[in-house]
Every structure is written in C-alpha cells, then in structure tokens.
Design goal:
Strand content of chain A: under 5%
Structural class of chain B: mainly alpha
Order of helices and strands of chain A: HHHHHEEHHHHHHH
Distance between the termini of chain A: 43 Å
Largest sheet of chain A: 2 strands, antiparallel
Radius of gyration of chain A: 21 Å
Structural class of chain A: mainly alpha
Oligomer: heterodimer
Strand content of chain B: under 5%
Order of helices and strands of chain B: HHHHHHHHEEEHHHHEHHHHHH
Largest sheet of chain B: 2 strands, antiparallel
Largest interface: A-B, 45 and 45 residues
Strand order of the largest sheet of chain A: 1-2
Helix content of chain A: 55-70%
Distance between the termini of chain B: 36 Å
Radius of gyration of chain B: 23 Å
Chain lengths: 342, 388
Amino acid sequence: MTSGLLRFIAAPAIPCYNLPHQRGANHNEPQAAAPGLRLFEREGRVPHDLVVFLQQLFNALRISGIYALVALGITVIFGLTGIVKFSIGQLITLGAFLAFAMSDNGRLPFLLAVPLAALSVAALSLLLERFVFRATIHTPINGFIVSLGLILVLQNIMVEGWGTTAHFIPPVLSKTWVVGGVHMPANDWLIIWITAGLIASLLLILRTTKYGRAMRACAEDREAAALMGIPVGIVIACTFALGGGLAGIAGGLLGSINTINVYLGQSYLLKGFAVALVGGLGNIEGAVIAAVLVGLTETMAAGYLSHPEWRDGYTFGLMIIVLLIRPTGLFRAQGQLQQTLQ
Amino acid sequence: MTTAIARFRQSFPGQHATSDVLAVRLPILLLLALPLLAPTLFPTSRLVSLAVTASIYVIVANGLHVVFSYNGQLSLAHTTLWGLGAYSAGLLLVHYDLPIALLIPAAGLTAALGAVLIGIPAFRTSGFSFAIVTFAAAEILRLIGNDWTRLTHGGRGITIDLFTAPTALGPIKFDTFNHLANFYYLTLAFAYVSIAGIWAIRNSSLGRTFIAIKENEQLARSLGINVYFHKLLAFAVSGFYAGVAGVLFLYHQKHIDPGQLSPFNALNSIQFLLMILIGGRASTLGPVIGAIVVVFGPEVVNSIFGNILTPTRAQIVFGSTLALSVLTAPNGIAGQTRDGFNTFVAVTRRSRERGRSWPVSMLIGLGYSFWPRAAQRHGINVRPEREP
C-alpha cells in the first residue's frame, strides 16, 4: 500500500484509464472545449494528487451506478422469489447488443434505443418467468440451475446472431468538461444522471406505490400476501420484468462506455452479485450503498495500488471478506431467507 | 450350475430395490466394459480423441458429483480447480521435466489443496452464497493465471512439447501423436478408478455422512457430525479428481491458457453440472452417461443430419436440455431408466398375477415403462428405495 502510494507520488503516470494523461489532454494548458467551466484559474492551485483522487471518485460514481442497476435487478428477484437468477449477465449483454443494433448507423437516437432495448429485455424476462421460472417457484435451487442452463442458451444464441467481434456505440455527447483538472466527459455525466434518476425513482416506487407495497408484502410472506388478496403471480412476473429491464438498461448504458462483445455480461454479472451479496441479498437500499462501496474499492484500488490489472480481484476479495465477517452481507438480508440449496 | 441359475433367478428384481441385484448389475458392468473396445471399433483417430475427452470429462464430472450430488454444495470453481491441476502439472513439466507418474499425484494434491483453501472461507456461507463465493474465488484464480506473468506465463498460457517432454510410463509410450490408443487406455483407467472411487465413497459411511449433510444439515450437526470438516473433505476429494483430470487434459490438449474461452473458465462448470443433471444426480453412473451424451451426442446428430449441430448450436440444445431436465426429469437419464425398468418389472409381475400370459404382460409392462407416473396412479410403487 505505502509503496504504491510512494510510487504514485514520485511518478504520477499511473496506468489507469480515463486519467488526464491518457485522454491526450495536457491539463496544464487551458482547454478550448469548455473555457467557461473552469473553476480554478490556474491549474497549479489544485494539488495533483487531489486531482487524481477526484478523477477516481468520478470514475467510481459512473461505474457504481451501473453496478447498482444490475444488483437491484438481482436483489429484487431474490428478495421476492429466493431464485438467484444467474442468467442476468446474458440479459445485460442482450441489452447492450439490442441498443447497439437499434442505434447503429444512426437508425435511432441512442437515448431512444436504450429504453427500447430495456423494454425488449424486460419482455423476454417476462416470457422466461411465465414459461420457465414459474415452475421452479417452490424449489429456488432448481430455478438457479435452470438459469445456468439459460446462460448457455442465451449466450450461444447471441454468438450465433452477432458473432464474437467487438462493437462500439459512439458516445451521445462528445464534450468533455474539465473542472479543476478533473476530466468529466458529458457522456459519463449523462450516464450518472440516468442511473441516479432510475435508482431514486425505483426506491420511490418500491416505498410508496401500491406495486411496491405489494412486492414487499410478497417478499415477507408470500402465502399471507396471497390471502390478503395480492395477486402474487402478477407481482412476481412484474418483478422479473423489472429485473430484466434494469439489466437491459445497464447493458445499453455500458454500450456507450465500453466496447461490447457477447462476453460483456459475465464480469458485470459477477460484480452485480458481489454488490448484492455485500449489501445483503434482498436488501434494496443495501445494494445501492454496496454498489458505491464496490465501485469505490475497485477504482481506488486500481488507481492507488500498484497493479491495476487486479481491479476485479480487489472487488472479489472485498466480497469474500465481507461474507466471512457477516455472511448475510453488510446490511441485513431481507425477504426469502431460505438460502439453502435444497 | 443349477444352483447358480437358481440364485440368478432369485436375484431377479421383485418389489424391492432393483439396483442391488445381480441381474441388473451384470449387464451394467458389461456395458461399462464396452469403452475398452473403442480404439478397435472407432474408425478415425478423431473419434478416439473424442473418447479421450469423454474419459477426462468423466473424471471431472465425478469429482463434481461428490461435492454436488452427495454433499449438496454447488461449486462453480470446479473447472478452475481442473485448470489448477493442469497448470501445476504444466509448470512442473516445463521447469523440472517430471514424469507423468509424479505429475498426476502432484497435480491432484495441488488442486485438492486449492479446493481446501477456497473451501475454508467459502463454507462459512451456504447455498447460493457458496456458489457465488466459489465463482469469485475462481475468478481470482483466473486473474492469477492471467496476470501473475512471472509464475504462470500470463495470457500466453503453457504449451508443452510432447516430443521432448517425458511421456512414457516405463516401457509404454503415451504421446498422443503416435500412441493415442495407449493414452486413451491410460485416461480410461483413471476414469474407471474415479468411478470405483465415487462408488466406494457412496457405499461407505463417509458417503452416507455426506448425504446426511445434504439432506438436513441441522440434523447432521445434532448427530455429532462435523459438517464443516466433511464439506471440506468432499470439496478436497472433488478437487483431487479435477487435478488428476487436469494432467490428462494437459497431455491431450498440449496447450492451456487462462482466457475467457478456455475450458477452465468458471462458467464452464455449468458443462459438468449439465452432465450430472442430464445423466442423473441420484446415480453413481450419472456423470458417465452425461459425459458420453455431451461428447458424442452432437457427433451422432451430425453424422445423421449432416453437420447441422455446430458447437454453438449444441450448447443451445444442451442448455435447454439442462433446463428441461431439471423441470421434468430431475433424476436424469439414469433415474428415468431406473423408473422405467422398475415399472416394467412391477407391471409385468402384477399382470402375470392377474392371469395374463407372458407376452401380453410384458407388452403391458413395456407400455407402462415409458410412463411410470401412470403406473404409480394404479398403485404400483415405482421407486421402492429412497433416491439418495
């Protein structure tokens, strides 16, 4: 840790993406792109390590939003049904590819393509719930194994359809704001605002609306909820659609950050699960907080420790340590607590 | 002679468990000996090579069988342990030129140690969390394979040169270029040993302890069983199996790497889970049936319908088969066959008791054997013994 910090102070050229020196911009010279947005007249006033820290914070914010979306999708489905839906990684990939296919060559604007892709993924998720997962509602472990089979099916259908080459969705906004040396692409701000808005509205929906109350009631006790006249089947179907839709949106947004290929979803699936487990499976607010925590761990560790290629390892290490100390996650796991394999 | 025949007749299944009697076990043993003929029966070396792959898969799947079917723990680190065995063997081979007789125990023990190291934290959790923790541990191992370049050669992987590497065991040569049949018999021998191993575990008090933990962990603990230790033990056994298979896989493939598409990828554990579930998780021979179906199924389809089943499409078919078999036939091919056979025997017997002739009774039995549930509706007990 200290040696990494020392090295960082001695030689600021840390190999971490999205840092100023890699964007090809010399941050000591005034930016022509957005002169009005500079908060500090002279670059020298902001210490360089603070700039790097703020830059990492910004990157963490962007990736946390995506993780939170994926983890929320996982956690609402688990909280309600006890099924761990592993195929959500492939739904992320599908969302990314549908958004790519719809917005490719300027067919549709990206901001229209992402919701459409998310809706399609939600529809697919609904179909899967109706014809596959409904049969496993009383034996969640079977649901888990079925979702493993679905991984093979969805993954290879996408390989058949799109091949294994990488694609790229051009960013919607190409402007990059520089505030005190911290480079903030407008596209990233867009993604942050979209994810923040989605998460906030989701929390609001689950807290205040009739559907949200019904969902929480079903998560607490499905039979009692059914006796109270809550249409449990419809609530479960809606929740699967919600989880799929969130994965689709996350995939679509990822398309404008990363290059996309058919294996995109796998690593984000694992990150999503790490977040959901750290936050306590089934705990919605916990998932959001854990997403920020995991995003921070990942970007800070990649930025300040000496080996950025191990960034995924830090996240998984954090997850394993948290599960060792608190097997139910940092915040109390909620909903169906039958975490046994039988 | 007459007493032998009488004993054979007596041993024919009645209302009791069928799998315990000689009349059922003898044909199964004969079927098990059939792979010995593969190099003489198969016309091309490609098919023999596929048989080698199937044997290796049998060993890996048997390892997962111990931890998944017996002990009820769903490990997604299994292919990574397989890779750990292959990597440790590859590095020992590249650096020290050890003979295969030393590589196999070394790799097996390394993978078993890896399993214990993963299991010590992972078994603090249970159920889905265990599956996900093993998945994360597998990803960390993959990162080590990919990024600790000085130790593992990084993304380049390890390539062994079979012309210079020691491939002989005494006077018998095992290189896969000129002596593929020999290598096949070597892997087959290990596959047989692995089957015998899990059969012995299943029929010992150790196996019963594993199953007790799977059936009811709280109850097992209250009986004084050290649950944590036995879970670790099952995981270590499965790791040992995977490690041994890793050496054979290394010799067969000659190149291993930690990439996303390598067979050691954690998600590839689904393949072996699929073999167990298609074959039958309640049977000792389930993984064997599953491995044969997974390896040779696409070949059979392709030879009949003319190469319509590319590997990608085969994966789609197998994925849907996995989902379907979990929903409709949870005990897989072996379980379905056993139920069908039990139904056939029971229905034929009852039909004879009601005074029908032998051919008619057997015809009725055959008809019902495809639909055991219908026989059950008529009060015939299809599953006399409780499935493990």
